[in-house]
Amino acid sequence: MSAEAADPAAAPRRRSRPRIDLRRLGRVALLGPVSRDRLPDAIGHVADAHRAHHPDADLGILHRAYVLAESSHRGQMRKSGEPYITHPLAVTLILAELGAETTTLTASLLHDTVEDTEVTLEQVREQFGEEVCYLVDGVTKLEKVDYGAAAEPETFRKMLVATGNDVRVMSIKLADRLHNMRTLTVMRPDKQARIAKVTQDVLIPLAERLGVQALKIELEDLVFAILNPKGYEETRALIAAVTGESDPLAPIADSVRATLREAGISAEVLIRPRHFVSVHRVRRKRGELRPTDFGRLLVMVGEDADCYAVLGELHTCFTPVISEFKDFIAAPKFNLYQSLHTAVVGPEGAVAEVLIRTHRMHKVAEAGVVALGNPYAHDATAAQQAEPSDERADPTRPGWLSRLLDWQESATDPDTFWTTLRADLAQDREITVFRTDGQTLGLPAGASCVDAAYAQHGERAHTCIGARVNGRLATLSTVLSDGDTVQLLLAQDTASGPSPEWLDHARTPAARIAITGWLSAHPDAPGPEAGGAGAGRADGADGRTESAADSPQSTAPARTRSGGRAANVVVDGSESPTRLAGCCTPVPPDAVVGIVVRGGAVTVHRQECPAVARMREIGRASVAARWRDEDGWSDTAACRVTLVAESFGRPRLLADLTEAIATADAAIVSATVEPPSEQRVRHTYTLELPDAAGLPALMRAMREVAGVYDVSRAQHPAATG
Description:
Elements: H1 22-31, H2 44-53, H3 60-73, H4 86-98, H5 102-109, H6 113-116, H7 121-128, H8 130-139, H9 144-147, H10 151-165, H11 168-182, H12 189-209, H13 213-227, H14 229-242, H15 249-262, E1 268-273, H16 276-286, E2 295-301, H17 304-317, E3 319-320, E4 326-327, E5 340-345, E6 351-358, H18 359-367, H19 380-385, H20 399-408, H21 414-425, E7 430-435, E8 440-444, H22 449-457, E9 464-469, E10 472-474, E11 485-490, H23 509-521, E12 537-538, E13 545-546, E14 558-562, E15 565-571, E16 578-580, E17 592-596, E18 602-606, H24 610-617, E19 622-627, E20 639-648, H25 653-663, E21 667-673, E22 680-689, H26 695-703, E23 708-713
Parallel strand pairs: 2-6, 7-11, 16-18
Antiparallel strand pairs: 1-2, 3-5, 4-5, 5-6, 7-8, 9-10, 9-11, 12-13, 14-15, 15-19, 17-18, 17-19, 20-22, 20-23, 21-22
Helix pairs in contact: 1-13, 2-4, 3-5, 4-5, 4-11, 5-8, 7-8, 8-10, 8-11, 10-11, 10-20, 11-12, 11-13, 12-13, 13-14, 14-16, 20-23
């Protein structure tokens, strides 16, 4: 469209214009090139989409925002060759289709004005109010000239903090990234891959946690096409092969409609195609796809009770696949998602997966927090009755976001924040445990009593000496399950602190950061004498707690060496030879665990190393291990680490990577370069660092080499010893 577009206020609104299907547009974008037809009458599509969800919306503020955005971006062009105003218009259209309210759309139209034009936040505040100004500021990037390599992580930190006060900030960011991903093909391949990797690690998990499935699934498909082109092409060919054929789900859908009609249940039955990544996952899970695996049935009804009525009819009139049943209505997911999931066998023996939900549930499932509208538009009467508070009550602020905001305050280093954020967002399941006062704690799946202690008590948890889980004494290392009741036991001595072993059992960033901070500040302080994570054990029969100090198997820590140099590793309960694993090359401050191998020797791995799970499966015993600063040992001692750099091939790439490594004072012990595959190259370096603390800076320097789109720690397959 032209940047010289006429004033949209003068254009008539055509109420009969069909709604734009975002999923269809995304699918077309993946299956083939998209024509760049100009948007008619500039903001007309946005106005119509907005009125479809909010018939009484006042469009005046949107028209004013468009005029300011168009005039301020006039003359600017996107790398695709289009006038820049097409970007904020497209982002706003995405949000309008999801049902966002007027304030969000206004901020979306203006979201790049402060960053890329002469418009100031003060001007936005004067013309559009405080809320719009806050949203625009929340999505405005920090200047790279001021923050250097830390600009990206610090920008995300800023956006997340702003999201903690108003989730609409992240809604705009997600729509912004979606449109950028749709038009990413104009970028260099290495930049495409780098943006796609950040989208995969950060934006997609955030879309999932905020429940915005319509954005999440299209982002997944676009990332899939860039980061796994081979898998994408295979999946694309499978979908193209069945496109146009008679849908095997159609007769099952007809049978379901007839069954519900006879039962007197008013329902809408649709066939919902799977997106690319979903088909790819099913194929990997089952090996060979069934004809019905390319879609699912969606049944939508009016009331919650009707969902269970539909379920009863389906399980009565069809053969149900019981293992596929899940009730996310009685127990919603932590991202607001509600539905009944089941699978039934159709008339011809075909198995169909079925989703059952109300129309309201469907709106929330697609749009998540966007569908909830303005979280602060409370009823005036309710506001008067509410308790006075300095903070605005936000019903859309979930527990995981509160926890993220808590721990990010302690992660002052941008590299620590960025690494921890990506690890935290990778934990995609959540459990709820109950406190003895009836309140609840939301924790990631796999969390232990250590995590519960810091979630409930903050830094007071340093004095925790044990716990009761469901009324029975338990060690702090006990892994909690959904629905458990936990009571944390605190020592009266406020000077006591955590043991290094607690890090072996802490899953949440808040707990790990707090424990690491205390240990760094108290290097010579002893840990709790009893009940510590990995130290005490609870005897369920008589409720007696035995500490490790009383255990006949407890011995002094063994000083270990690897390759003739101090390894700085302490392994409890073992004086056997100890070495650092070559498969994952742990360095301080990695969380580590020891595995007893043949001959009684102990190999120390990073906790997330795949070899650990494999060795435990074949019966290898694990022992607690930790880094320690004692008798001259130091976490700043030289260490060896293996890094994998993924890049696009180009001349002098190897020389530039080698120079970046040398500049960081790291010595190359060995290096391998795999043969290029689809013009992508994988470099594996085993490096000797004079100081483990320099590892984040080294990885950052390697990522900044042109053509490199990711650098990660190696996770090689390892022998089981």
